[in-house]
Amino acid sequence: MQFGTVLLQLSKGLVVSVEIFFLTLLFSLPLGLVVAFGRMSKNAVVRTVTKVYISIMRGTPLMLQLIVVYFGPYYLFHVRISAAYRFIAVIIGFAVNYAAYFAEIYRGGIESMPKGQYEAAQVLGYSKMQTFFRIILPQVVKRILPSVTNEIITLVKDTSLAFVIAVAEMFTVAKQIAAAETTVVPLMIAGVYYYVFNLAVALAMERIEKHYRYYEG
Amino acid sequence: MAAAWRAEIVSGACSRGIRRKIREKISMENLLEIKHMRKAFDELEVLKDISLTVKKGEVVSVIGPSGSGKSTLLRCATLLEKMDGGSLSYLGETVCKPQQGDAGDSVYVSKKELKKFHRYFGLVFQNFNLFPHYSVLKNITDAPLRVAGIPKQEAQERARELLSQLGLEDKADAYPCQLSGGQQQRVSIARALALRPEILFFDEPTSALDPELTGEVLKVIRQLAQEHMTMIIVTHEMNFAKEVSDRIIFMENGLIQEEGTPEELFHSSKERVQEFIGKLSDG
User: Fold this and answer.
1) Ramachandran angles phi, psi of B122, nearest 5°
2) Which residues does B contribute to its contact with A (CB < 8 Å)?
3) What is the CATH number of domain B2-120+198-280?
């Protein structure tokens, strides 16, 4: 196979990886906030359920979770799994897994906020919603950005786990070519692609961090 | 300049003048009425039986050793804590009162009704608690805009007016982290005043500041006293309390041990009061 063809094939795979990446962020970032609220809920049942959920998500391999999400409907309900579900299963699996990690990062950030900020807002008459979305959350975002960046960079590389249910993302493609042509070159190229992808992510996150540098605290 | 302010704080002549002027403006209207306030944290009884009435235009200082319940009193009055027993009202409107008797367990009005009381008072914290992600101007205008529904232009005009009154006209676009402690505390006073409260509480407003910065904050509070702002000030600045207050309250062990005009307090026959004031005055 020609080098150019390899690059083209891998680039097609990269598009799928990027799709997984953005869709996962799109769903897991807000979902994480909901999970964080559950984790900090005054209701003991909600709190425990969320805790167990986070514990399972963090305590078992993401690869296994993808398999469960993909094959689960068949084993549980004997639903025929369509081909389109493959990609959906990947997004669901990634989103619920990353939401658990983000939830813990959010929780750490929210709990690190000084009580005085809540009290100042309360005395000024802000509602609970206003206090959270106007006063607390913007400050939490600044505080958690480095941790979130870490998680997002991991996500870029984790997209390769989609190979386990045969979604043709970049790493799946690289492995197929490598096996067919008995060469590791496609895998190395894939490595370079991941690196460049992450470099872009890191630069983007740096810009966001810089934006928040207008104040200290 | 700060040294001059300090000198002013110490000089008694000036202070008596201020007080006399304020007295003339004190009306008969009770802004705040606390009766038999009780508050315990688990086993610890922080407030045992506090009754306090503040009239419009009055400046009341609360002094006393750490752990005497001064801050808890302020926190209960500003609804940051719920009191256990007794009653609390602003402008004759009940915040909470016992179901029976005077000193029984407090029953609060509904959450919806509680909201309106936030308009009646402001609180200035010991460590400012400004919103660090907002500019000085936004710190002052955000609550009027979002909570009181005041039009943007009006809120900004009011904020700029307050800033110039407090000597911060050039700081509107600065962020709290760019200001000194004294400036931050003045912004937080402006933030509280922007909502035009009837009564302003200060919880040790200068305790986080060095003596030089303390002066500039006290100057602002003195200015407010001259404008007949009703204030309750928890403070360790004895000379300032003496100078600016119409009434001083000495608290210890969750009770008001002594109450009276500065002259009465500073010449109290009670040994404990003398000892406490002596330790903190003049220095």
Assistant:
1) -130, 155
2) 78-80, 115, 118-119, 121-123, 125, 127, 129-133, 142-143, 146-148, 175-177, 188, 191-192, 195
3) 3.40.50.300
ipTM: 0.86
Nearest CB to A119; choose among B129, B177, B191: B129
Q: What is the pTM of this model?
A: 0.85
CA distance B141 to chain A (A): 11
Q: Where are the domains of chain A?
A: 3-214
| Å between A112 CA and nearest CA of chain B | 15
Exposure letters A100-138 (e unless 16+ CB within 10 A, then b): bbbbbbbbebbeeeeeebbbbbbbbbbeeebbbebbbee
How do the pLDDT tens digits run along chain B, 283 residues long? Answer: 444 443 443 344 444 445 544 455 556 778 999 999 999 999 899 999 999 999 999 999 999 998 899 999 999 999 999 999 999 999 988 999 888 877 788 899 998 888 889 889 999 999 999 999 999 999 999 999 999 899 999 999 999 999 999 999 999 999 999 999 999 999 999 999 999 999 999 999 998 888 888 989 999 999 999 989 999 999 998 888 998 999 999 999 999 999 999 998 888 888 888 888 887 775 4
Domain ranges (residues) in chain B? 2-120+198-280, 133-196
B-chain residues near A114 (CB < 8 A): 129
Q: Please state, as a whole number, how many other Cβ atoms lie within 10 Å of the Cβ of residue B62.
A: 28
CATH classification of A3-214, choosing from 3.50.50.60, 1.10.3720.10, 3.40.50.11220, 3.40.50.10240?
Answer: 1.10.3720.10
